[in-house]
Amino acid sequence: MDPTLTSAIRQKVSDLMDASSEFESSNSDDLINQIERGCTCFGMFSNAILLPMILYRSPSDIGVYKFLMMYIAVFELFFGWLELMTVPQLFTQGSAFIVTIDPDNAVLPDSALQISILIYCGSFATSLAIFGVQFAYRYQVLQGNTTWTAYSLANFTFWGGIPLFVAMLWTLSCWIFLGRNEYVDMVMRQDYFPSNLENKTIGFVGIYFYPKLENGMSVINWNSFIGMALCTCILFGSETLMVYFAVRSYLITKTLMASTCSPNFRKLQWQLFYALVFQTVIPILFMQIPLSVLYLTLFLNISTPFFGNLQATTISFYLATDALPTIFIIKPYRETIFGKKSERTRE
């Protein structure tokens, strides 16, 4: 057979295989995006149901704690809305981790994309901190510390402001250290990075630990290391406080079983505790653990697109499921969902 013809056939077969691979990848990405959007919508629906139940169906013994619960529900509604409006894409390869907003997918105007992606990163941080704050508040309630738990604007500002302060620190670290620079631009010029973002105004946050220069030499991108060090401190700091106050709250709640408090009050405290535990396990499972694994793969320079897709998907799983423990564990809310009416106004 003519060598030229053979070479042409091989090239044609190769092109067909590449096209098939791109088509399968595109279909896979579309499916993942649909799953993510569906999970986000379901989570917003769950919180939209939970919010009026917290307001109107909460036991009277729950006190001002219900406002913290409402705070979380409103935050998760906002986080879900932001996810739908921006459709962020997470890309990982080697030591590079890039979060982008494609203007063709986003509903928001191009001028708002960069600030939107910074708010998105800050919302991620808020979701890590908010349950540590909730456990800390529960601990003060169980301790009977009315100075920190009384219904007042100062207390609400303090407890509600801590997650926002954490979000501000996370957002500032992303803005200062993880913006576009010559190193992350190298990643965007590589063949494995999505080419449809070229020459567009995009929202962007990026990490590239070990950029490879044109001469083949690898260097250390200290901006990425500093930015990720700050984010990692926030991540593990929130986990530490969460575990500490969770254990302390459990020990105090356990002592209530032998106290003179009413059975309804003791039962409510256990329901609140278990609801908070399950509600906290969800972000640990779907956000903190995947993010920790992703950080490790980046540091070892072995990350693949799988880890970016995993993190994007698990964020949607978090939004879809986090309201469910509160709905199904706290009895008045559960009875409202299943059409049963409590015989008592206090649980």
UniProtKB/TrEMBL annotation:
Q: Which domain of life is it from?
A: Eukaryota
Instruction: Write down the InterPro entries for this protein, in alphabetical order.
Output: 7TM_GPCR_serpentine_rcpt_Str
Classification via Pfam families:
7TM_GPCR_Str (PF10326)
Locate the transmembrane regions by residue number. Answer: 68-91, 111-137, 158-178, 225-247, 272-298, 310-330
Alphabetical keyword list: Membrane, Transmembrane, Transmembrane helix
Q: What are its GO cellular component terms? A: plasma membrane
Q: Which GO BP terms sit in this record?
A: olfactory behavior
Q: Does the keyword Nucleotidyltransferase apply?
A: no
- Sample GO molecular function, one term: G protein-coupled olfactory receptor activity
Report the protein name in the record: Seven TM Receptor
